[in-house]
Specification:
240 residues, alpha/beta, Rossmann fold
């Protein structure tokens, strides 16, 4: 997929942060972006902002919940109707609940698994036929927390360890069908994740547009080469 122009990407959690920046970088390269959010108003506002920026590609914002397979299928179908095909799926939507296991609630555990792991399964299942038909690309946004465990991370670690394993297994399932699969595993990123408000104090972190550029670079890789897992860290971490 060296030529991104006129290709269409389905990006979950695309109204802000990494998802928004992935959509923007793809649109700068001439691709189209279907961005989803649990809120139609948020998705529409993000798409309007992207379209107003004058990028070659176009954006479509829609409400879709990754926790529902039916919702994901409907969104993929709408995107195909709008653009003719869905060539790339970027499974980015995620949540974070961080607490000692003694304090972590069953509801927090369930939401973390439902969004970060089952949600990706739903997005992949919904988009699989399109990816196979178009010899497309699946990219999941995992985390370094998918290989590095930490205190108060039981739910998040479980979801991201599972996501890394899931993605690599899917890669083996579909590689003979012409579909490329990569999981991107960022460290600290300056986003709104977990109610964080990005500021100048986050200048040392990976910026969302950096992840967007990695996605574009992956899509431009020669067909013969597959970086199946990409770990990304800040060059100079903040001193503790």
């Amino acid at each position: 997929m060296n030529n991104i122009k006129n290709k269409t990407a389905y990006v979950t959690g695309g109204s802000k942060g990494i998802g928004y920046s992935v959509a923007e970088e793809l649109m700068k390269a001439g691709g189209n972006a279907i961005i989803t959010s649990r809120s139609q108003s948020s998705a529409s506002a993000a798409a309007d902002k992207l379209n107003a920026a004058g990028h070659p590609g176009k954006a479509l914002g829609m409400e879709a919940d990754v926790r529902s397979l039916e919702s994901q299928r409907a969104a993929i179908a709408r995107g195909k109707e709008e653009f003719g095909s869905v060539d790339v799926v970027v499974a980015n939507a995620g949540v974070g609940h961080f607490a000692n296991i003694a304090d972590l609630t069953a509801e927090e555990w369930q939401e973390t698994i439902d969004v970060n792991l089952t949600g990706v399964f739903n997005s992949v299942k919904a988009g699989l036929d399109e990816l196979i038909a178009n010899e497309g690309y699946l990219i999941t946004i995992a985390s370094l927390a998918g290989t590095n465990f930490f205190p108060k991370g039981s739910a998040y670690n479980a979801s991201k360890f599972g996501l890394v394993g899931f993605t690599q297994a899917v890669m083996l399932d579909v590689r003979d069908k012409g579909v490329k699969v990569t999981t991107i595993m960022p460290g600290s990123v300056a986003t709104f994740f977990n109610d964080h408000q990005p500021s100048e104090a986050d200048a040392w972190k990976i910026q969302p547009e950096d992840i967007g550029q990695i996605v574009v670079d992956l899509l431009r890789m020669p067909a013969r080469t597959l970086p199946s897992k990409v770990e990304v860290r800040p060059t100079t971490p903040k001193s503790k």
